[in-house]
Amino acid sequence: MKSLNIAYNPRIDQLRWLAALIVFLFHFYIEYRAAGGAAIGSPWWGIVTEGHTGVGLFFTLSGFLFMRIAQGKGEIQYRDFLRNRMLRIFPLFFVIFLLATSIQRDRFQPQDLFYIFATNLGDSPTSRSVVTGAAWCISLEFMFYLVFPFIARFALEQGPRYLLKLIALMLFFKAAAYAESERSTLMYFSTFVGRFDQFLVGMLAAELFVRCHGWLRRHALWLAPAALALALGNSALQASIAPFNASPKSAFWIFWSLQESAVWAVLILGWVSFERRLPHWLEKALCHGGKVSFSFYLLHAAVIHSLGRNVGLPQLLEQPLANALALGAIVYGATWALATLSYNTIEEPFLRMRRRYGREGTPN
């Protein structure tokens, strides 16, 4: 569903597809290993073994997209902005939350209802099951929505230096919190302290996009693949130095989210500036993947885990790598189909209720 508040850019949907794909590969690999599949030994496959980085791409992309909207509007009407955001994420998120409380029926406590506002903290019902675990990041996304109109206004008034000052504050918070948390990796991974700077980096990328659009357009042909190679290298670095499940904790994670989002910001700038058309069938497929990416993200773990528990690790092909790729393709296709059904049934009817939330701009 195209936005009413900014001209449609298929590159944004294609980046959403990429983010969802990376997270899918991460969780598929975890389930594959749990079922007895072979481990990946090389850190150069970090984009898979550390595929949680796809969430960082989602967050950075959110900051970029909404700042681009703010740049095209003299003023964002706060009430209508939040109304649109609620219509965008709450219907499907609420379904997932109800699924989580149903699965955890025997452990349910009345106070668990408050976790609908903080799925990333404590003993949230959504985090008790792999099936609904992906919902942890929705609370962080909505936290960003709550403050974005104010941050965007100040950034438009003061320029990029305002965002840089906020990022500097976030670095201080990260450093100060490191020694105070025994599970600092999980804190950086799933809380305001560890993630909010990724939205800010996305907003900063939008400021750079406006100021350097001509240069980006001229160099996008090499910039986009170079940024993708940089993302692969960055994931390999993390897999080598401080993987997510490593013990003891590593100070690398103080800077991890900022480094991760900076790399994704370069990819966003390069790909959004890339004006050459892909083959029609590929453009259509990737854009559809981006369109249904929210459903795909929230449902993919349920598909992977359910198939893993009930089917296991069937040997479709003799070669282990070929067998893993075949299984991954089948599970991916099943998730794609379910996400399309979810989008058409749950998301799209509510998306049609959105309205403009700025004083300028025209619908697509």
Can you characterise this structure?
This protein is mainly alpha-helical and 364 residues long. Helix content is 70%, strand content 0%. It has one domain (10-351). It has 13 helices and no strands. The radius of gyration is 20 Å and the shape is globular. The protein starts with 9 loop residues before the first helix and ends in a 13-residue tail after the last helix.
Summarize the structure.
The protein has helices at residues 10-34, 46-49, 53-71, 78-103, 136-158, 160-178, 184-190, 192-211, 213-241, 252-272, 280-291, 293-310, 320-351.
Q: Please identify the structural class as seen in this structure.
A: mainly alpha
Question: How many DSSP H or I helices?
Answer: 13
Work out the radius of gyration.
20 Å
- Number of domain units: 1
> What percent of the residues sit in helical stretches (DSSP H or I)?
over 70%
- Give the DSSP E fraction (strand runs of 2 or more residues): under 5%
Distance between the termini: 10 Å
Q: How is the biggest beta sheet arranged?
A: none
Calculate the mean pLDDT score and round it: 93
SSE series:
HHHHHHHHHHHHH
Query: Spans of 5+ residues with little confidence (pLDDT < 50)?
Result: 360-364
Outline type: globular
How many β-strands, per DSSP?
0
Main attributes of the structure:
364 residues; mainly alpha
Helix/strand layout:
Blueprint: H1 10-34, H2 46-49, H3 53-71, H4 78-103, H5 136-158, H6 160-178, H7 184-190, H8 192-211, H9 213-241, H10 252-272, H11 280-291, H12 293-310, H13 320-351
Helix pairs in contact: 1-3, 1-11, 1-12, 3-5, 3-8, 3-10, 4-5, 4-12, 4-13, 5-6, 6-8, 7-8, 8-10, 9-10, 12-13
